[in-house]
Amino acid sequence: MGPGPDATGTGARLARWLVDRWVLGVGLLVLGYLLLPVAVVAGLSFNRPSSRLSYDFNEFTLDNWRQPCATSDMCDAVLRSVQIGFLATATATVLGTLMAFALVRHRFLGRSATNLLIFLPMATPELVLGSSLLTLFVAGAVPLGFWTVVIAHVMFCLSFVVVTVKARLAGMDTRLEEAATDLYATPWQTFRLITLPLVLPGIVAAALLSFSLSFDDFIVTNFTSGTTVTFPMYVWGAAQRGIPPQVNVIGTAMFAVALLLVVLGGTIGRRRRAGLG
Predict the structure, then answer these.
(1) Would you say 64 and 217 are in contact if contact means Cβ atoms under 8 Å apart?
(2) Quick one: DSSP state of residue 56?
(3) CATH assignment of 72-243, among 3.60.21.10, 1.10.3720.10, 3.40.50.300, 3.90.1150.10
(4) pLDDT per residue over 162-190, tens digit each?
(5) 202 vs 267, which has greater pLDDT?
(6) Which pLDDT belongs to residue 6?
(7) By the number of CB atoms within 10 A of the CB, which of 82, 111, 171, 197 ranks highest?
């Protein structure tokens, strides 16, 4: 006795549902694969390992979150990475935004060459970039330390800022600025009330990208740091004698902050579009 018409109809609807949503399913699988290491790190942040060299889940504990500073050296390294990240991000965001406006809004001699040179730090391997900066600092008798790391981070963050802000400027409708000018707005008023709010999401995205690149950089920092120890360098050094579980706490907290900022930005953007609609 064959299946009834109801079973056949249900099977057809299920097959049609799967066919219509297979792209979504593949996307969710890829997203889950990308987030799997983050989930492991988050789980290990609640783990009390059986030994310093063991990474298996031994016992659940909240002590790692109650005492995030395993040693003063680790907290100093985290604070130093945050300081370098903020300084490099602020400098690269200001300079990169100005460069993006110049490249999109103005025509000048060497503009094509400048556009090409902007992509070189992004395409150059970090090993080459770090060794080149080290050679430059040594040749110039510049002592390696905190400020050489900041300069190096500004160098590779600048390209990402220019590319991100350029993309935002290229997609902006210039007729809005022309309308403001027709309504007797001054250039400063046009920039403050029209241009800046439209470009601001791109600037914020570029700043967040720059900070994340600066905070977790190891290769360029290792070449230019001297005796300065950042958080990635601390983790690399601690791996030889056992990474403290509090490192997973820092990683989980950074991911949570980044996720919160993304969700907050998306919520604000949706409310703004709903208000305009």
Answers:
(1) no
(2) S
(3) 1.10.3720.10
(4) 999 998 888 888 888 888 888 888 888 88
(5) 202
(6) 56
(7) 82
Number of neighbours of residue 158 by Cβ within 10 angstroms:
22
Whose tokens are 């130093």? That residue is 80
For residue 69, the SS3 value is coil
DSSP code, position 194: I
Instruction: Map tokens 């809005």 to a residue.
Output: 176
Mean pLDDT of 14-39: 83
Supply the pTM of this predicted model.
Answer: 0.82
With 0-12 CB in 10 A as exposed, 13-18 as middle and 19+ as buried, what is 84? Answer: buried
**Which whole number is the average pLDDT over 256-271?**
81
How far, in Å, CA of 33 to CA of 27, rounded?
A: 10
pLDDT score, position 80: 94
- Containing 198, the helix (H) or strand (E) segment is helix 196-215
